[in-house]
Amino acid sequence: MWSLQKKLAFILTGLAFTAVLLSTWILTAFDHYHFREYVDQNKRLRNERIAQVLVKSYEREGGWTPKTGAEMGEYFAREGMSIRLFDMNGQLVWQFTAIPQPHDSNPSGERLQQNLKDHLSSKDLIEISSNGQKIGFAEVTYTDPQSYTTLDYHYRQAMTQGVISAIIPVILLALAVSWRLSRRITQPLTDMISLAQRMRQGHLNLRVQLTNGGDELSQLSQSLNHLAEELQKQDKLRKNLTADVAHELRTPLATLKSHLEALLDGVWEPTPARLKGCHEEVERLIGLVSNLESLSRAESDSLVLNLQKEDVADATRTVLQLMEAPFSDKGVALEFQAESCSFAMIDRDKWKQILINLLENALKYTDAGGKVTVKVAKKSNRTINGATTGSVAVTVSDTGRGISDRDLPFVFERFYRADPSRTRATGGAGIGLTIVKKMVEAHGGTVEVSSQLGNGTEFLIKVPEAN
């Protein structure tokens, strides 16, 4: 199987070869046309000159003699033409046969005899008149059927050899340039293939050296490097996932085990307070499993949404009323701003879960005296075929601790926690925001986050506006 470089090289060489041959054919045809015109014009002038010389010689000699115009006949014989002079009665006065040239690889005499034999030579009959009276005629026989003289023939031969001599180096140059160009084009692709193969073996830290410019190869290099970065990030998250899940399960199980061992050994009395602690750890495990089930359903294709045309502002206000008590207990203000008639196709139950996860997250990281603001507004996105498509935007912003730039890209990853110790005091299991993202995407929407450490966090949800 041929490589892409060889295929491209042969294609470029073929195109160059075709272009050279086509150009040569056009130039040769153009040259032949103009050379033919040049030969015909010279032929007419030559015939006129022959007639004029013979007339003057006839008038000077007072008639036809074997020497009348003989100098001219000898001259044209050297030019590769045979010429015969006849009087009015058709009697031959003199004749001169084409004289072979010593540098002619195909002597004019032999070519003339062969062309005469093959009926390929050309003849001209030139009428000779003096004072309006016909006095004879001259017969000029050209060696070449195209009426070429020896000089014309050599010129054409030199032109043909020149064209052939020019074609060969041009074709060789085109071949070299084609192979060089094909290698230059395919080399980045070869490097990318090699990189992809090494990435498949687990070397995700490799990167393609970006080519200059903004062409397709440069864009492909950037895309491959971006893919490598994403794979490396996902591989790191995958490795951390096992440790995070183990930590989330190990903590409540270890607590339960220690409590039960203390009770069984008689170290502790089974008081309601201690039994309540065991119950809380069990509830913690149940909550973790419940969150995992919710995440599994959100990520699976079997997630079914009961979409209805709802007023997003009204659905959001209902959820906020449920969250007023915990916000009031912690001393965090909860504000709500909304535009009326902000309709979208949503599942009210899933929408409730989305907002509760975001509000609980905001409440957890906002200190007493802080504020959480929820806004609902309509936005115009873009124009398609003259029609403007809109969306309903829901913003949940707080005045809490904020998220560092290092952690911000990973907040929607499952089990991700900015605190590596994963203590309960600094957050939950790290699943809530992952569920939010998956459910918002199931509604055909998007969720974005912006934050600055120490200045709070803002989540922006956009869902398509209902027609």
From TrEMBL:
Membrane topology: Multi-pass membrane protein
Any one Gene Ontology molecular-function term assigned to this protein's record: kinase activity
Residue ranges of every copy of the Histidine kinase domain listed in the record: 244-467
Name of this protein: histidine kinase
Coiled-coil features, chain-numbered ranges: 217-244
Lineage of the organism: Bacteria, Bacillati, Bacillota, Bacilli, Bacillales
Main location, first listed in the record: membrane
Pfam families: HAMP, HATPase_c, HisKA
Native source organism of the sequence: Effusibacillus consociatus
SMART domains referenced in this protein's UniProt entry, alphabetically: HAMP, HATPase_c, HisKA
